[in-house]
Amino acid sequence: MVAFSSPQPDPKVAPDLLERVVIYDPEAMRERGRLGGIATHARHGSARSLSAARAALECRFVHLADPGGTLSPDERARRVAALRREHFTHLGQLSAAARRARKAMREGEQA
């Protein structure tokens, strides 16, 4: 789909640029991003690209478990593990709810 930003083309913009502007729908952009992520992980491995995010999440759990830094290392590790389990269990529940909603939508469309 070719789209112009205004009814009157801007004289400062090269005319051929206006013909090359493509607008993607959100679903197409989501798929493009997903493919890009898969390609990045295939080329470089997920450990390299996600290490900073994993470290930040671990720091978040440590801070939530022991904001004052007063717990013993064993107790802090136990609480961090519990927070991690809680976090990922919650994500699993959200994922299951989304799958149920998509399934209900598909079944509603077929009826």
Count of discrete domains:
2
Instruction: Note the beta-strand portion.
Output: under 5%
Oligomeric category = single chain
- Describe the global form: extended
Number of strands: 0
- Rounded mean pLDDT score: 86
Helix content: over 70%
User: Which sheet architecture does the biggest sheet show?
Assistant: none
Rg value:
23 Å
Low-confidence stretches: none
Order of helices and strands: HHHH
Brief overview:
The protein is 75% helix and 0% strand.
Structural summary, described in words:
- The protein is mostly helical and 111 residues long.
- The protein is extended, with a radius of gyration of 23 Å.
Jot down its keywords.
mainly alpha, 75% helix, 2 domains, 111 residues
Chart the SSEs and their pairings.
Elements: H1 15-20, H2 26-44, H3 46-65, H4 73-110
Helix pairs in contact: 2-3, 3-4
